[in-house]
């Protein structure tokens, strides 16, 4: 949350924006959490909604009219938005019960001109709002520059950190090889070029990384990839180093990032693909204005990026082994310090980061650590800050979801722990053990799943939920997301979740080389939450007499699961075998990296169930 003084209050910022809109002849403006690349995480320069409202969540939108304003968030942020946003300035609106488009249709004045920054919204979003406003004879107007930028006096500049070369020894494929694959696809489909606007796609295609956005090692840039295998890279000139120029070679032309919009105008007469999930409305507008033909197609780097090559797969295994040792040290530390009652959520998150920092190839966390005590563990997307920080109470559940960005892989792991008391007497309730064990059973069922070629993630989702369903409970998030290779911790196109047209990726067949999370959970509002998460790799299965190709999972994440919360009477013999086999692997992989008290703790944690 951005702290605001009396002289720089939310009311003053809102008034300044309304004055700017008045100067521009606009009746309103839409403010999303977004950047020009539709990124999950965005740089400080793009945190316009936080500046205007004080809201610190990762998803939300505000609509400002002359006499009223509203902020739209989903169920993850119902509590947070009320803590951070002044109800006297913004109405609270819940998505998907409503939307900015529906709210504008009901609240915008007749004939209103509503501004939007076409570099921050998708084409489909703009078309939907245009249709809603048309019912009130209104119009959606693309602004020349963002009105908030005009009144945000101390707005941070975009990062000027240099782009970094991601060497072939870690990427497993050269950029030339990747560009040739994209070129072959363009030619086979009859297209001339592809706009690559997703930052992790740019990074993967050119084998570059960066430090421009926290938690995702990317550089702010665009690429136009051509059917002849060449590419234009649009990137800040201060980010270009001799090493980068040499790495990219003659087939990649480096141009200023500010030249990107003009370069779209150079594609007159060309057929150009744009991914609707990452290509903002302004890209379509520029192509159409130039006389090019934009075609909506999935970014051609997304599927090959998701299918990790052998070098990337081994890099993940190495990163997971290193990360598992950090997690084991943390869990040991927590077992010692937690019962004393002196720890809080921030202290725990900082200590876990310190253990990860012992690696010399850690470059960042892969997301903000979810360090969640007691009732906060019931919030799947909780993020601790100074205002929300809770003590970790002895005799309670603590959930920690975390990950690291290592040069050789991206990790993501959740462990749910019972925090004991000094006398060792406090034990989980029967309900807590029941729910934990049902989550564990679902985790094991998904880990052991065998499925035929062509199976989408949605077909596997119920494997993880079935035992919770049998008890009349469920969880409200997906079961698995894709993970990048020293890239985004949330990567498509694959996903394990309930089939839904509004959830991209649930119909994507799982393919060998894809990495996904396996993370069923259970959340009792106001009381506790449970999640068990490992990463898994899709691999081929050798089955005698199999009629066609069948796949399964190789577990990548190795760290102890808390046996205190397990009700063994609910486990089958096969599930107990899985537990014992898994923990034997944990011991074999992690024990050589530990000594002293952490090693003794690990040996005990990994004993047979």
TrEMBL record:
Keywords: Aminopeptidase, Hydrolase, Metal-binding, Protease. Residues 13-141 form the Creatinase N-terminal domain. GO terms for molecular function: metal ion binding; metalloaminopeptidase activity. It holds the Pfam family Creatinase_N. Gene3D superfamilies: Creatinase/methionine aminopeptidase superfamily, Creatinase/prolidase N-terminal domain. Residues 316-540 form the Peptidase M24 domain. This is Aminopeptidase P family protein.
């Amino acid at each position: 949350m951005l702290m605001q003084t009396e002289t720089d209050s939310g009311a003053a910022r809102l008034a300044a924006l309304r004055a700017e809109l008045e100067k521009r002849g606009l009746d309103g403006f839409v403010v999303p959490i977004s950047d020009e690349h539709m990124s999950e995480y965005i740089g400080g320069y793009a945190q316009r909604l936080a500046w205007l409202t004080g809201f610190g969540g990762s998803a939300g939108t505000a609509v400002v009219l002359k006499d009223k304003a509203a902020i739209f968030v989903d169920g993850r942020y119902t509590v947070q938005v009320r803590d951070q946003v002044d109800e006297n300035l913004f109405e609270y609106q819940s998505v998907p019960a409503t939307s900015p488009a529906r709210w504008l249709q009901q609240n915008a004045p007749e004939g209103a001109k509503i501004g939007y920054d076409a570099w921050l919204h998708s084409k489909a979003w703009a078309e939907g709002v245009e249709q809603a406003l048309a019912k009130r004879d209104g119009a959606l107007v693309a602004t020349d520059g963002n009105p908030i930028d005009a009144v945000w006096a101390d707005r941070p500049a975009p990062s000027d950190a240099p782009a970094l070369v991601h060497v072939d020894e870690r990427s497993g494929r050269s950029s030339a090889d990747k560009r040739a694959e994209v070129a072959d696809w363009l030619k086979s489909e009859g297209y001339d070029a592809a706009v690559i606007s997703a930052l992790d796609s740019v990074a993967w295609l050119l084998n570059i990384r960066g430090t421009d956005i926290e938690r995702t090692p990317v550089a702010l840039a665009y690429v136009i990839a051509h059917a002849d295998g060449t590419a234009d890279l649009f990137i800040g000139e201060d980010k270009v180093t001799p090493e980068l120029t040499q790495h990219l070679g003659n087939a990649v032309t480096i141009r200023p990032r500010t030249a990107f919009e003009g370069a779209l105008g150079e594609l007159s007469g060309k057929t150009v693909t744009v991914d609707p999930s990452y290509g903002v409305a302004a890209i379509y507008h520029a192509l159409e204005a130039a006389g090019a033909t934009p075609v909506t197609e999935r970014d051609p780097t997304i599927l090959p990026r998701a299918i990790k090559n052998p070098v990337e797969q081994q890099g993940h295994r190495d990163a997971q082994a290193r990360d598992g040792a950090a997690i084991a040290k943390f869990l040991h530390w927590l077992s010692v310090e937690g019962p004393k009652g002196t720890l809080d959520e921030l202290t725990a998150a900082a200590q876990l980061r310190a253990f990860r920092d012992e690696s010399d190839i850690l470059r960042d966390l892969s997301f903000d650590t979810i360090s969640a005590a007691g009732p906060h563990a019931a919030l799947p997307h909780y993020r601790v800050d100074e205002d929300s920080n809770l003590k970790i109470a002895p005799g309670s559940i603590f959930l920690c979801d975390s990950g690291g960005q290592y040069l050789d892989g991206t990790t993501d792991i959740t462990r749910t722990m019972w925090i004991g008391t000094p006398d060792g007497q406090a034990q989980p309730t029967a309900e807590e053990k029941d729910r934990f064990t049902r989550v564990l059973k679902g985790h094991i069922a998904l880990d052991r799943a065998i499925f035929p070629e062509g199976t989408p993630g949605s077909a596997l989702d119920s494997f993880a939920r079935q035992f919770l369903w049998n008890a009349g409970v469920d969880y409200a998030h997906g079961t698995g997301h894709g993970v990048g290779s020293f890239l985004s911790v949330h990567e498509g196109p694959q996903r394990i979740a309930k089939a839904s047209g509004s959830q991209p990726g649930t119909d994507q067949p799982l393919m060998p080389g894809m990495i996904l999370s396996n993370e069923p959970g259970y959340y009792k509002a106001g009381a506790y939450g449970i999640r068990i998460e490992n990463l898994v790799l899709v691999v081929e299965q050798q089955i005698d007499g199999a009629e066609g190709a069948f796949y399964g999972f190789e577990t990548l994440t190795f760290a102890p699961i808390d046996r205190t919360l397990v009700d063994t009477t609910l486990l089958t013999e096969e599930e107990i075998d899985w537990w014992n086999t898994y923990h034997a692997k944990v011991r074999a992989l992690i024990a050589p990296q530990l000594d002293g008290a952490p090693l003794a703790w690990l040996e005990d944690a990994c004993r047979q169930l």
